[in-house]
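Much of what follows relies on a compact textual record of a protein's fold. A record is reproduced here so that you can trace the correspondence yourselves:
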Amino acid sequence: MTISPEVSSLVAAIQDFSRNKLRRPADFAVLIDLAYAQKKKDVLGELSFLAKFVWNTYTVMKRIGRNEEGYDKLSFQFNENMEKASTLIRLIMKEGPADAKRDFTQAYFPMTPDAFQNLLDLLYDLSWLKNWEIDHSSSAKR
């Protein structure tokens, strides 16, 4: 799939902003490009918000460990929001090209450890989109 120059520039800017930490930049670009083309920026915004929440929850869960107080509640919230994020990704991909839908379906949606890690990595990248938006909206107000 060909990515628009606008989205290519945005992904490059986020890659720089994250200090080259994006894990799935090609799929990240596809998702953003489809959201823009389909006028689903609001869905992408909700997805990036959820992604930031999921990633932060995951980080806390790893830090405190399974046996600590509050872990079960965090785990429930994590799983619930992973499902919501997956649904939003599917919504954006629904009207995408057949090859992109196939690639995303194979990489992110099977119930396998690899697909789970792929989805978590894509959400990590989407959390950088939210971080970039927050940073750039506050710097524009200065």
